[in-house]
Target: SIMPL domain-containing protein
Amino acid sequence: MRPLLPLTLVAMLLVAGCAGPLQTDGGVGAAETETGPSISVSGTGTASADADLAVVRVSITALEADAETARNRVAEDSQAMFDALTDVGVDTDEAVTTAGFRISPEYNYREDGRELLGYRAVHSYQIEVAPDEAGSVVDAAVGAVSTSGEGGIVVDGIQYTLTDETRAEVRAEALEAAVDAARADADTVASAAGVSVTGVRTISTGGDYAPYPRFAAESADGGAATVLQPGPVEVTATVSITYEVQ
Model:
């Protein structure tokens, strides 16, 4: 016996005045509109590329008796870091930007009140370099800043990502894959309903998503250098398409 599902779908597609869209578990809908029957689907596609940008985030901090002394020490340590980065080939005017700056009192809280320990100055930086330069940037920055007393440098994290140009290229590939996935779903539903896709009525895209790639960090022989091994960056894109059918 022939399955009843295709006949049911055809009836719902072709009878005027249908109450609303027919939804399937896969997020695919078929609906009758004033301009004729249609099928609405969504698709997801992914594409990847090797990271071509590393973003190193560091913070230089100092705790001193007064705010001006703390600010001055952070400024001196920052200059030392800039000089070290220049020595390893980083264009600090282009690659280094301030991510945050603050000076605030720091207290030791006790049952009978609080004791002022001093003033904490923190200057955070973002350093953008090629992926294979990230390890040398970390080593240069850490080696340039004194860790004596209450202060020093903290490596807040390293993000391997894509430049704007590369991201646009990868997103285009992901969108193509998403459109292909949506069309495959539309063809499947149309075939089951005994109709065929004839054209595109509407199409919209969603935002892309690119998670941080995993990477391994280790020291070279003798513990002299930081070696980072990033993985590829994957971009995911989505589309929603309404197809005309007959």
